Amino acid sequence: MGVTIRWLGHASFQIKANEKVVYFDLYRSKKLREKVPDKLEPASVVLVTHSHNDHCFPEAINEVRNEDTIVVAPKDCGDKLDYAFESLKPGEGSTFHDIEVKAVHAYNVKRFRSPGNPFHPKGFGVGYLVKVEGKTIYFAGDTDVIPEMNDLGSIDVALLPCGDTYTMDNKEAAEATKIIKPKAVIPMHTWDRSIDDFKKGIAGTSTKFVSLKEGEEFTIND
What we know:
single chain, alpha/beta, Metallo-beta-lactamase, Chain A, seven-stranded mixed sheet, 4 helices
């Protein structure tokens, strides 16, 4: 059985493999609920990259959380999450319900609220490497192209932001893809903008470009 990746909109994904269900940055705004109205399956693990509202959204997490669910989030998400959760710093890893999770760096180097004040400073948030059923998924979080992308190892699918403003734009996401060399890449955090330049930017590489609409899924097969 393959590993299925479903885009729930914005930077939110559902990963399913056998009986395991993982969510990345689960966000359920009114607009996204209209596009993906389904009742979501209970979570084995919920991964949160940082505390911004469109990534750490307690209402949505509570809808999929039960007594067995493990939530992993940066410590400052404790201001929003009123229950115990796990936290991993970049470079740290652990196994939750047989799902291997490692936190990696995610930060801005060229996008700033004001001079010297990045939207996502180094150490504020994380990305995640998740290994499930032998497949490795890289969820980049909100990030620019950063040197640490050179050290991620073998990636089956990379989930990369490309909407600009707070993260990489299309051309930078293509640059990141060439650095990471995943077997497949899925755009996210697009702000409903065109992703054509992202696709064009990796033409001729061995990476498969997978464009999903909200609610659509992609299966990693053996």
